[in-house]
Amino acid sequence: MRSYRGQMLYLAADHQETGREFFSVTVHPDGGRILRAQCEMDERSLIRDVILAVDGQWRPVDAFVRLTVAEQRRGSSWYLFGPHHAECEGDTDVEGRISQLCETAEPVQSFGTHSLHNDAWTVGRLRQWTGEPGAMPLTSFTTSTTPDGSTGPMLIRRGRGTSQITDLGDEQVSVPAGEFTARHIRISVPGVDDFDVWAAGEDCVPVRLTSDGLDQSYELVALEGDWR
């Protein structure tokens, strides 16, 4: 078992800092991994705490998400994913106590927790894709349909073809944490966001991201530990 940790900065169009994400990841010998992320957005005083486990194929196993906005608890939810289902037990200030169960024809491919590191793990799922080269339709669930993930957290399904992933190949990327060879992908979610992700190495460490919906960019500023 090995682990690594780091920090991303959230940057506005004028390159001013608007937030940050602290993350740590544990990688198990079978390829399964656990992400722990604390996401902070200053403008809305938003804090999102995320724990997400994925299997060796980068598919979600279980998760916990807690959301605070303007120093007030917005909600918290626990998630479990099986071969043919996804479920959520939670409590939010808008929906109240929630219990959701969704049947699926196949294992859930990804789960969007609105943490940057989680977004970068999409590159891992893309490596498993054996269909038409260049683009992969993404069937997944998410906690919120807003670009900043400020609602819920709930279990929200995105149908096959609703989101699209395009593989743009490897690029050299220079950020405050160093210079990396990173895989560049574009994730398009109609009506919500189009964002680009650069992820480095076997572990798909987020190096840089950009969001059209939020008009922001994100850069890796610290990375330490046994990452590959």
Share of residues in helices = under 10%
Low-confidence stretches: none
Q: Tell me about the biggest sheet?
A: 15 strands, mixed
Name the helix and strand elements from N-terminus to C-terminus, one letter apiece. Answer: EEEEEEEEEHHEEEEEE
Q: What structural category arises from helix and sheet content?
A: mainly beta
How big a fraction of the residues is strand? over 45%
Q: How many domain regions?
A: 1
Form type = globular
Question: Count of DSSP E strands?
Answer: 15
Q: What is the averaged pLDDT score?
A: 90
What is Rg?
16 Å
End-to-end distance, in Å?
13 Å
Tally of helical runs: 2
Side by side, the strands of the main sheet go 8-7-6-5-4-3-2-1-15-14-13-12-11-10-9
Word description of this protein:
The protein has helices spanning 116-120, 122-127, and strands at 2-11, 17-27, 33-41, 46-54, 60-69, 72-82, 85-92, 96-103, 110-112, 135-142, 156-175, 178-189, 193-200, 205-211, 216-225. The chain starts with a strand and ends with a strand. With 228 residues, the chain is mainly β. The chain is globular. Strands 8-7-6-5-4-3-2-1-15-14-13-12-11-10-9 form a 15-stranded mixed sheet. The chain has one domain (2-225).
